Description:
Layout: H1 7-21, E1 27-32, H2 33-41, E2 54-59, H3 82-87, H4 92-104, E3 109-114, H5 119-124, E4 130-136, H6 140-146, H7 150-159, H8 173-185, E5 192-195, H9 199-210, E6 219-222, H10 240-246, H11 256-259, H12 263-273, H13 277-296, H14 301-313
Parallel strand pairs: 1-2, 3-4, 4-5, 5-6
Organism: Rhynchospora pubera
InterPro entries: Glyco_transf_N
Protein name: Glycosyltransferase
Amino acid sequence: MVPFPAQGHLNQLLHLALNLSSHGLAVHYAAFAPHIQQAKSRLQGWPDSALDNLHFHNLPIPSFSCPPPDPNSTISFPLHLQPLFDASELVLPHIASLLHSLSATSRRIVVIFDRFVSFAAREAATLPNAESYCFQCVPISQDLVFLGHDGPTADLLQSHGLTIPSLDGCITEDFFAMMIGHYKMSGLEYSGILMNTCRFIEGEFIDLLAQQPDFIGKRHFAIGPLNPTTPVRANGQRHLSLEWLDDQPSRDWDRQNEILLAGEIEEAIKRVMVYDSGDEIKQRTKKLGEDVMQAAADGGSSNIELLGFIAHVTRR
């Protein structure tokens, strides 16, 4: 496992590592030591003992500038982390050393790399007993846009009454350029793609992705959601936050000014929690949650595809 050094990426690959480890696979997780500790400390839904089954590799941290966060930035992006993102590729020699070491003692090694660390796939391609898989942690509909297939994606979104969301104010030009660079580099150097989504949610987009030239002939596995769908505390009980939500009344006119800051947010909450039309929304949301949990449960579509991936990479 080679994650991108940002929490949302570290966390998802750690969940995947634990899922694979629970099926008896030897899983190695390579990242900077502070990020490994960060991912471990923020893990939810797994007993602490599950982490003992993983092999963690602390990669040396290269030298890079570390500017402070800019609280006055006009863009909702952690600009101060860009030097870290740029420096992450400097660990390639250490990734190469780890892969060669594992290759020498294994029948097959499987490299699962975050889309934004595609250099790991290039190194895996040099080994005779290695194959690599790209891990996709953003929605496939968004991935298609990043890959330049916004035309057919827009048509499919429009058929569901949706539009392509704008990235204005979300990411910087530097990050976008880095992202596109990794998308291009990983083009033909990996065997398939693992997606933290399920076919119930994005089945049409997954099928559209499989039809694109860059993905024809590659294997696709929709294996999400990877995180446990029923968060629990270490003692096996449901998380306190869920118990607190269960105790809240479904309708409250008394506290909305205390917790709502904008008129649009207030109106949206009213539609769901107060107005009669909210009952239909809540029923749809409840059904959606049930279907997603079913996908991840034994015999569900994501569970079947995860087992299919395991069977494929452990084939003789």
